[in-house]
Amino acid sequence: MKISFVTSTLTSGGAERVISLLANNFAERGYEVEMIALTSISPDYYTLNPKVRFIHADKVSKGGLLGELWWFRKHIKKEQPDVVIAFMEAVYEFVLLALLGTKTPVISSERLDPALISWPRKVLRWLLLPTATAHVVQTQQIKQYYNQRIQKKTHIIYNPVNEKVFQVKGYGLKVKGEERLNRIISVGRLYPQKNQKMMIEAFAKIAPKFPEWSLVIYGEGYLRKDLESLVERLKVKDKVLLPGRCETVIEEVAKSKVFCLSSDYEGMSNAMIEALCVGTPVISTKVSGTDELIRDGENGLLVDIGDTEGLAKALEKLLSNRELREKIGKEGQKLATRFKTDTIVDQWEELVHRLKALG
User: Fold this and answer.
1) What is the pLDDT of residue 42?
2) Band of the pLDDT at 48, cuts 50, 70, 90?
């Protein structure tokens, strides 16, 4: 069976991590797999299995967007994959538009909150999404956003976590026999969506009460200078660190006593899931998916989106209560098995075969 995966790029990001992981695992299971990236942004962050054929569409097509659409349509008609799997709204719209009238099965996959796009893009999605063979989302909340016609073809499949989370031994207060660090950790691109500004402001409110604690935000993005200026202005430069990307971020999360997600919207946060899996207590805004995983006060703490004061209170609550941190961390870790890679790939494989059987 032949599968074509389509993404915008393979730069660092949650959607890119998942689509590369799926491609690699399908290749290992004996499928003929290709990955098509519509945009070349060097360097590619994720490594593909040598068995996966990798194509940068913008390098082999001519004539801008229209030329790329035409190239993609000809390429798929020539290769005749059994299914095309496209991640992210703009990408699956590109794919569906290019393949109109070809009868090629397409699985579109939404990776963010579908409500938070402009009206012109919503209209485009309304026109094109009904032509998808199947649609994959990560939460029940996102599925319910769509009309009944789309819901009937929509499947909920969680993101798989990096298998490294299952190699981190010792949950709770200690990891590998060592005390966790007095550190709040966060992982995400330095983009407005992630609202690290609110996180820094919330931490600054309580920092004087917890002089031994720090906030470390891993990730890179165009808001770096703005966030660094904010840290300077709030006089927490010695407490708030922005070290950039990290190849061993799972280990860093596991060594931290608290994980924080301050996003304004998400599909389902990979970083939050990984924190749950390694037993690091999670504080999160009430973005899509959190209410399906986190029971407030039992296996995590939830705060309203954009609520700086509420986040500060939640941070203070966890930082001051060792027993609560241990309880929340252990309860959160019980969710780990549902995010194992084999479990998630099995669900995708079942969907692919179901579509193949339908012809």
Assistant:
1) 67
2) very high
Q: Where are the domains of the chain?
A: 2-160+340-358, 163-338
Q: CA–CA separation, 353 vs 75, rounded Å? A: 23
**Distance (Å, whole) CA 209 – CA 153:** 51
Return the residue matching tokens 């061993």: 248
pLDDT at 180 over 50: yes
| 163-338 to CATH, choices 3.40.50.2000, 3.40.250.10, 3.80.30.20, 3.40.50.2300 | 3.40.50.2000
Is 217 strand, coil or helix? strand
Query: Beta strands of 97-253 (E only): which ranges?
Result: 106-109, 134-137, 154-156, 174-175, 178-179, 181-187, 214-218, 240-244
Q: Residue 175: its pLDDT value, please?
A: 53
According to CATH, what is the number of the domain 2-160+340-358?
3.40.50.2000
Q: Please check the confidence at residue 176 and state whether its pLDDT lies above 80.
A: no
Asked if 281 contacts 259 with a C-beta cutoff of 8 angstroms, the reply is yes
